[in-house]
Design brief:
The complex is a heterodimer of chains A (327) and B (302).
Chain A (H helix, E strand, L loop, with lengths): L1 H30 L7 H16 L14 H23 L4 H21 L1 H4 L19 H28 L1 H11 L1 H6 L4 H27 L9 H14 L4 H25 L5 H22 L17 H11 L2
Chain B lengths: L3 H27 L6 H23 L12 H30 L4 H23 L14 E2 L5 E2 L1 H23 L1 H11 L1 H6 L4 H26 L11 H11 L4 H22 L4 H15 L11
Antiparallel strand pairs in B: 1-2
Classes of the chains: A mainly alpha (327), B mainly alpha (302).
Chain lengths: 327, 302
Amino acid sequence: MMDLLGYGAFFLTTALIFSLVTLGLNLQWGLTGLFNVGLAGFVAIGAYTSALLTTPDDAARFGGFGLPILAGWAGAMIVGGIAAALTGMATLRLRSDYLAITTFGVAVVVQLVALNAQKLTGGPFGIGFIPRPFGSLAETPLLFNLSNLAVVSAVTLMAYLALEHLSRSPWGRVLKALREDGRAAISLGKSARFYRVQAFAVGGAIMALAGALQAHFTGFIAPDNYLPILTFQVWVMLIVGGSGSNAGAIAGSILVWAIWAGSGTLTSVLFAPEQQARAASLQIVAIGVMLCVILLIRPNGLFGDRPRRPKPGKQKKAAASENEAGP
Amino acid sequence: MSLQFVVDGLLTGSMIGLGAIGVTLTYSILRFSNFAHGDFMAWGTYATLAVVSAIGAMFGKVAPIGPLSFGWPLLVALVVGMAFTALLALLLDKVLFSRLRSQGRAIIVVMASFGASMALRSLLEFTFSSRPTYFSRAIQIAMPVGFGIRITPDQIALLLLTAVLVLGVHLLMTRTQTGRSMQALSQNAALARIVGIDVASVVRVTWIIGGALACVAGVMIGILVQIRPFMGFDMLLPMFAAAILGGIGSIPGAVLGGLIIGLAEAGAVQLIGAEWRAAISFIILMAVLFVRPIGLFGVRER
């Protein structure tokens, strides 16, 4: 019973860290319509920044500044935000696909730096000894897991409330206006590029914070934690939950993580150890097909609020597809 | 600095350029960045490998052609592989992309291609495992051609094949009715429809050319490097960078962009080390986006 409770706390902590990334993505995509396929890169930037700031001094690499954990989290958000702002500045005046390609490139390069800049990131060996909040409780796993869950829940709740507030604020309304009808919003004197860069930077900062949380929760990070599969998982979470809704982002994350973890357990029971790697790739195929199917039959997800505004001249067609996509 | 990097760069550039033709065509005619294009490459290569093995099982060991490392079975298999990859692209368009395209939200199609890419690649990994394989394990002797440059017969043959294919696609685009329809559609889709261009057939030709060339690029990688499920995914960033550097929609631009990136990568490997190779495409991509986002031969977006 206690084990189950401990596992439940551990599971929810992981799911909520994912949901923090999904909230960041929802600000970028759901609210503003910016397509980021390199979010693993921003999560990694946050994790490594916070690790460098908070770990004790290490002769083998740069840094280890021994700062408090909160300073690490703040640093992660700042660096993640700046990286996202730079990415946005290069691409957001161009067609939306350019942002996708560039963010993809950011993720590739961050992965490359994590793997090869040994002096900075520890290379393939990663960074260990990252201070954990409530590390002194590690002897009693249940208490440790529950206190971690409390910290992660508090951060997620704060991010959720802040994002809800933001999306109702004048700033959030400008973003929605740009998403729905860029030309109309621009004609009202709003600088599309300026607002989009801001939204992209704030989303990147939230993703980086999630990376930092994860790093301090596990105490060890390595380049393998930030492969393209992470980006993919978070996208599925947002699409399942419904882009545009912060509550949907959290619910989608928990649901998809439950499916992912459950199918992982299932394959480990069903397949022999030497077949595990193959079973894991089949798991990815299943999730990929799921993403495509949801996009086809229910693009608004479970909780999505994105109204599909019919385009002038296409109203009949849009209305028809609206009916098809309806519940 | 040895001039050997020129040969390496031209070869890598050919692979990137052949792939980038498909990327640039999909982007300019179907209006989306296809993240599954790299996986077409990998699927085409594995299909070719499967046909080579099947021929090997039927006819036994076949002697290679002259000094090359491969014989006629690979050429037959390549043609089958190209057809297979084109069909795969058409099939994916039919079940997925065309339906999402009709909803009119381009970026949803990009997202679907991202999901399809993950699924396609993992399916390869499931079927063939992630262990690398090869068309041939024979080692070729490189011939010196002066200036300290050495080149193998395979490399010469593949450079020639690339030149022939690029010339062929260029002629197709500029001299045939289909090619002109493709250009018209990429420049102004609404107007092209009004003058009665058969959009469905143009879309089909786009996928066929893109898929077939992706297969050739993948087989080149398979002959010169190795075959892995991730081989195409790793080429995605260089291919996008080449298409943008050359100017979206331009076939000579995609090839030239590919060659520039290939040469830059090969040159940089000597200076800063092979582990940073993948960063070169990103740096070139960012530089182009900041300085001249329409690329070398691009036209401004309307």
